[in-house]
Amino acid sequence: MIQKKEKIMEVLFLVTACISVVAVALICIFLFANGFPAMFEIGIMDFLSGTKWKPGNDIYGIFPMILGSIYVTIGAIIIGVPIGILMAIFMAHFCPARLHAILKPIVDLLAGIPSIVYGFFGLVVLVPFIREHFSGNGNSILTASILLGIMILPTIIGVSESALYAVPQSYYEGALALGATHERSVFSVVLPAAKSAVTAAVILGVGRAIGETMAVMMVAGNQARIPSSIFKGVRTMTANIVIEMGYAAGLHREALIATGVVLFIFILIINLSFSLLKQKSEVA
Amino acid sequence: MKLKQKLASYRKHPGSFLLMLLVLISAVFTVSVLVYLIAYILIHGIPYLTPQLFSLEYNSENVSMLPALINTLYMTGLALFIAVPVGIGSAIYLSEYAKKGNKLVKLIRLMAETLQGIPSIIYGLFGMLFFVGTLKMGYSILAGAATLAIMVLPVVMRTTEEALLSVPDMYREGSFGLGAGKLRTVFRIVLPSAIPGILSGVILAIGRIVGETAALIYTAGTVPEIAGSIFDSGRTLAVHMYSLSREGFHTNQAYATAVVLLIIVLLMNGLSSTIAKRVASKNK
After folding, report:
1. Average pLDDT, integer, range A16-40
2. Share of chain A above pLDDT 90, in %
3. pLDDT at B284 > cutoff 60
4. I want to staple B16 with a disulfide (CB 3.0 to 4.6 A). Which of A183, B57, B156, B179 is the partner?
5. Do residues B67 and B58 touch, judged by C-beta distance below 8 A?
6. Which distant-in-sequence residues (6+ apart) come within 8 Å of A227 by Cβ?
7. Is pLDDT at B1 greater than 70 in this prediction?
8. What is the per-residue pLDDT across B56-68, written as a single tens digit (0 to 9) for each?
9. Tell me, what's the pLDDT at A197?
10. Would you call A214 an interface residue with chain B, using a CB distance cutoff of 8 Å?
11. How high is the ipTM of this complex?
12. Cβ–Cβ contacts within 10 Å for residue B87, how many?
């Protein structure tokens, strides 16, 4: 009797453990099954490299959106990565323990703020700022990049910081003993030793930035065309889905799901490279 | 003297000084962004937190957030009701039952990691296709909660697994030694000692659920009234805020909603890290 119960519960635990596998499989199946037919109907090349998105005329080219996602992600990386890594270095090697106890929750807080609040903040603070101090109407690649750069900070800081801690203390001490200054030891010995994990942090940040929806949508302007400068508005793949899904039907709706599929494939590639890099840094 | 030495060293190594400056600047930047964001939202939002905003009825004149707040409670409760048992069950399997180096375990971990990297808009699309469409739930609290449950599942899984792994093996050995079976050991000995760790993960999950927007717009819908049952559509607080800021007529109320959202999320974060800290200090 007890043996039976043990067995039943073990199987039950196994089943719950398999739910995440099932979930990923279902997500793949449903997205691909609903997205690919539209891609074939539109023509894969026309869909991916078409520069016109005119649902009214049944023209669906998501190239501007792919480019949009890539632009804002690159912008976010340019802004977020240096600050994030430097902040991680500050937390791991520069600040006293007491300050660290304050900074850690602050970084966690940055991670916890909902993206809609970030987006709103961008809308009421960043957009007017860019409009007044630079050119354009404020809804631009630059605005979205700054906002995303801030949003990926906690991701970059968290992963880089633990990577820095993982470097053996003897590296740092060795560098000091050779006469290097504290800064030089950290930047030219400890940081390079943590390189692959820090790269993994950056990749994770890329994943966050490219998948971000609400915040980007609220500040990027969302024009579905290839932008001519960083002060022009841009529409990302994520924004494309949210904006038009509400009223889309038929092929238009399927084209939006196909946009999701393209985004999903981007994410899967990013995830995979993150896992590989993480494994590599754990082995090293 | 020490400061003087340091200054002298910086004079000799201007590069080091520059690096130190950069590190300091990025630390100051990160902290001031967070402080500015929170202060800005609070200062602009608190004056508009009027009692009318908490009336039971939503109408176009008084965009009350109370219905959304109640929906958020429903949504959170239901999503946790699905995600927590599954997450804990998976974690129990992974840490107590699975053999080391098992292929299945590797797969489960990889999939959980994949789930964690999927952006919320993809969850939203999947929820719309699977729960709303195929399972015919319609736009409903249930569909939204099921979508969110998958989204927070890896969070619950990971924190629970960590909590279970931190339970010392001698507890298990002691229990086995007294003649208890595996199941009894897990439920009576291991789980109770891991509860604080699990709790901090659950609270983290609550934070994610409360702040989520993109995954809910096309699964739970945007009806601004209290959902009568879990099969009714209803907007959560974050979706409510999105609607307000998008319409543009109720910016002040959007600020007020942002304040409430921020306070909930900050509270959750604080609670989670306090519990996590207590666990960490106990384990030492």
Report:
1. 92
2. 45
3. no
4. A183
5. yes
6. A67, A68, A71, A141, A233, A234
7. no
8. 777 777 778 888 8
9. 85
10. yes
11. 0.90
12. 31
Q: Which of B117, B115, B119, B124 is nearest to B215 (CA)?
A: B124
pLDDT surpassing 70 at residue A282: no
Interface of A with B in 151-210 (CB under 8 A): 153, 157, 181-184, 186-187, 204, 207-208, 210
Question: Per residue, what are the HEC states of B116-147?
Answer: HHCCHHHHHHHHHHHHHHHCCCCCCHHHHHHH
* pLDDT tens sequence across A214-269: 999 999 888 888 888 888 889 999 999 998 888 888 889 999 999 999 999 999 99
Residues paired with residue A60 on neighbouring β-strands, in sequence order: A53
| CA-based nearest residue in chain A for residue B239 | A116
| Residue given tokens 């659920």 in the structure block | B209
Question: Do A94 and B129 lie within an 8 Å CB cutoff?
Answer: no
The neighbour count for residue A21, using CB atoms within 10 Å, is: 18
Residue B280 touches partner A, C-beta closer than 8 Å = no
Dihedral sign (CA B179, B185, B188, B193): positive
Q: Give the separation between CA A254 and CA A244, rounded to whole angstroms.
A: 11
For chain A, what is the HEC assignment?
A: CHHHHHHHHHHHHHHHHHHHHHHHHHHHHHHHHHHHHHHHHHCHHHHHHCCCEEHHHCEECCHHHHHHHHHHHHHHHHHHHHHHHHHHHHHHHHCCHHHHHHHHHHHHHHHHCCHHHHHHHHHHHHHHHHHHHCCCCCCCHHHHHHHHHHHHHHHHHHHHHHHHHHCCHHHHHHHHHCCCCHHHHHHHHHHHHCHHHHHHHHHHHHHHHHHCCHHHHHHCECCCCCCCCCCCCECCHHHHHHHHHCCCCHHHHHHHHHHHHHHHHHHHHHHHHHHHHHHHHHHC
Q: Within 13 Å, how many C-alpha atoms sit on residue A70's CB side?
A: 10
| CB–CB contact B37 A95 (8 Å) | no
CB atoms within 10 A of CB B53: 18
Inter-chain residue contact B22 with A86, CB threshold 8 Å: yes
The mean pLDDT of chain A is: 89
Residue recorded with tokens 């002298």: B8
* Record: contact B118-A27, CB cut-off 8 A: yes
pLDDT tens profile B153-175? 999 999 999 899 888 889 999 99
| Residue of A21, A86, A125 with shortest CB distance to B23 | A86
CB contact under 8 A, B211 and A181: no
With 90 as the cut, is the pLDDT of residue B84 above it? yes
User: What tokens does A253 get?
Assistant: 């709706």
CA angle B100, B102, B107 (to 5 degrees): 120
Within 8 A of B260 by CB-CB distance, chain A residues are none
Does residue B202 contact residue B80 with C-beta atoms inside 8 Å? yes
CA distances from A205 to A81, A157, A266, B56, B160 (A): 8, 10, 13, 41, 25
Q: Report CB contact under 8 Å: A275, B113.
A: yes
Find, among A111, A77, A216, the residue nearest to B268 by Cα.
Answer: A111
The set of residues, in sequence order, having a beta carbon less than 8 Å from that of A67 and lying 6+ positions away, is A226, A227, A234
Q: Within 13 Å of residue B184, how many CA atoms lie on the same side as its CB?
A: 11
